[in-house]
Amino acid sequence: MSAVAIRTPQQTPSVLRVVGERTSDARRGETTVVLPLRHAGPHEVCVRWEVRGPAHLPVVAVLGGISANRHVAASRTFAERGWWDAQGDARWLAAHRVVSIDWVGSDGTLDAPIDTADQAAALAAVLDVLGIDALDAIVGCSYGAMVGLAFATTHPARVRHLVAIAGAHRPHPFASAWRALQRNVVALGQLQCDEAQGLSLARQLAMLSYRTPEEFGARFDATPILDGGSARCASEAWLAERGAAWAQKTSATAFVRLSESIDLHEILPSSVRVPTTLVAFAEDRLVPPDDIRALAAGISAPVRLQVLHSPYGHDAFLKEPDAIAHVLARALDCCEEACA
Amino acid sequence: MSAVAIRTPQQTPSVLRVVGERTSDARRGETTVVLPLRHAGPHEVCVRWEVRGPAHLPVVAVLGGISANRHVAASRTFAERGWWDAQGDARWLAAHRVVSIDWVGSDGTLDAPIDTADQAAALAAVLDVLGIDALDAIVGCSYGAMVGLAFATTHPARVRHLVAIAGAHRPHPFASAWRALQRNVVALGQLQCDEAQGLSLARQLAMLSYRTPEEFGARFDATPILDGGSARCASEAWLAERGAAWAQKTSATAFVRLSESIDLHEILPSSVRVPTTLVAFAEDRLVPPDDIRALAAGISAPVRLQVLHSPYGHDAFLKEPDAIAHVLARALDCCEEACA
What's the complex ipTM? Predict the structure, then answer.
């Protein structure tokens, strides 16, 4: 057990707690910092982080979707599977020192508007604590891609390459409408004392936006089952199970504030001055490829855009490990060459 | 005021009430009939109908979406705008005798599974009452297209041409999932004593499935407004207004049973032995053009398929009056020639 406290002029992160020796293969910590939340003013928050891999390797921040957390992959010290392990090939991580955080707001204790720039400020505070001046790369997926874009805008000197998968510079108005209705469903459940069911339904609605008709057409029957005088569609049980599991581990406040955070995300493409690799999925109904094309056209640095096909739509970032591994091999090699 | 009662061997429709003289330009009536509901067994239901135009003109049943009713267009007798008037050019109706019905279940008094074949049986019972042996055509949009397809299957001798706009032989599993979640949102509202809000949210979710990202992208801003510590997306007020207006005029039972009815819709394309014109919208996210193509390929009669483009997606059947008028001019001319 060791504790480190580093001060910077703008922010004053203080380390609450660190688990894991400096010599172990991974460490976790909690850092309190006063974040100047863009829409809610200064708030003291506790940022939970994990770092994995030896200090001499290139440092990468790996940031996932809104339901991801600081535990990216298993290590000797923290042996449970991480979210990247769950989605496929995590071997590329072994060649890097990996930093990640639990999203600010994900524990449900902060009931205020949070945006992606606030998450970027939290990541910067953790880098201060860890003594990391600059990241060799950020690999961000979905919400993590938006946070990566925000970080590249607010801290351009602290990252050398950005890989943003299935994220754009702004939310699409149709996707925003979809999320707004999910938040209203949560509110209906909350006001009426059935928070779990409201959360479950909101998550199920979100699932539809993450997936595609192509997947559902191949996976589920068109004929419903009549059960107790009502029809149950073929996908209902699967959706309900996913919704209930999710509601059990998530607070309504966390869901609403992180969902809202996506809608508050807004950066100017030209303010991104870091070499960037963008990945879009042609079938993504949440982050349309056209929005990522517009972002690519506006970035003020070398940019490479890859548009991939997947029946999984937005969730391809989780469900297409081979394609993602290929993108990362190319992007991070390029980054490492640039840094060599 | 006049009353007519006609008996047929299978069904025994009895006329409850007729409004309007035989000599007036339009009449309305209510007919009780025992319908052998496909999933719920025999039920006595009251079918409300309207007929408009003189008896010597070609007879067309005009059937709209689940929120449509028997009042297709204004007449001298019933001067309020009908749902076809609201969507555009209703001049073609003047050349026809027009029959329509309120959907069985739309008044919320029948809490049992209803399907499109049951609606077709209700239409047939009304034709018995009106002394109409066979329709020159059915023009059905969305749910009305499904009912038209069911009628062509169960009563092939009673219709000479079918125009089915934005409807297929079965629901798509993704659209079914979307509807199932809407019904679950209604149930959340009902159980928790906020039926109006549950219905409103369900309708708003349905609206998203009727429209497209293209329309929302052109119509609404990406930046939300922060209002009392929460973000409100640009489309939220518009959606909420539509949802509330709809909840005010619809019962939860009607919504749930008609929504379910779409999921219970299932016909064998080869069982359609009536000349058919099909219209699909390329951007329709609820009834994908590929499903309508599969239907076209299977129909056992001359079939013409037109795929049209519209930023309104599924709602193009309401929002593209010129394109629809063009389709009808061609389809009904052809039908009238065939009948001449």
Answer: 0.89
